[in-house]
Design brief:
Layout lengths: L5 E3 L6 E4 L5 E5 L2 H7 L4 E7 L3 E5 L3 E4 L8 E5 L6 E6 L5 E5 L13 E3 L23 H4 L2 H11 L1
Parallel strand pairs: 3-10
Antiparallel strand pairs: 1-2, 2-5, 3-4, 4-9, 6-7, 7-8, 8-9
The structure holds zinc ion (2 copies).
One zinc ion binds next to helix 1.
Length: about 160
């Protein structure tokens, strides 16, 4: 069966389809993500750029300041400005897709909770999902197949 997760922006000018399951799913509670989303955390599905099929529209990058100083470009619908994915660190082969833009945002659940040191106090983390005060060891947590995909995507 083909992998069928589709999503898009609020005005539907941007529509996309994911070509496979993501490598890993982050729930990030850092201050950058809180400010940029205006919410408690962000949900990112990490996937190869070439596995995102753009069905319509042309998301445009907007560079945002970060606490770490690393570059972060948020790709937004030019019409309604919904953020559909991010490029962290100017790595053209990797995208962080905003799970809230999926037609079925329940289709993907976080594999890890990160930067919980700035988690809002009323957010209760689920048992059994790894969580870290800051970042974490990709090597220790990701499945071997996902690490291999990441290596290939980064060239
Ligand atoms: Zn739009
Ligand atoms: Zn974050």
């Amino acid at each position: 069966m083909a992998y069928e997760l589709e999503g898009g922006c609020a005005c539907a000018a941007v529509r996309y389809r994911l070509g496979s399951e993501p490598m890993f799913v982050h729930c990030c509670h850092c201050r950058d993500c809180q400010r940029q989303t205006g919410s408690a955390f962000v949900l990112n599905a990490i996937i190869e750029t070439d596995r995102i099929a753009l069905l319509s529209g042309d998301p445009q990058p907007v560079s945002v300041p970060t606490d770490s100083g690393r570059p972060h470009d948020i790709y937004r619908c030019p019409a309604c400005q919904t953020a559909v994915w991010s490029d962290y660190g100017r790595r053209p082969g990797l995208r962080f897709v905003r799970i809230g833009t999926l037609d079925d945002p329940a289709a993907l659940t976080p594999d890890v909770h990160i930067y919980t040191r700035s988690k809002l106090p009323w957010v209760v983390l689920p048992e059994g999902v790894p969580s870290f005060e800051a970042y974490y060891s990709t090597r220790a947590l990701w499945p071997a197949a996902s690490l291999e995909r990441r290596r290939a995507a980064l060239g």
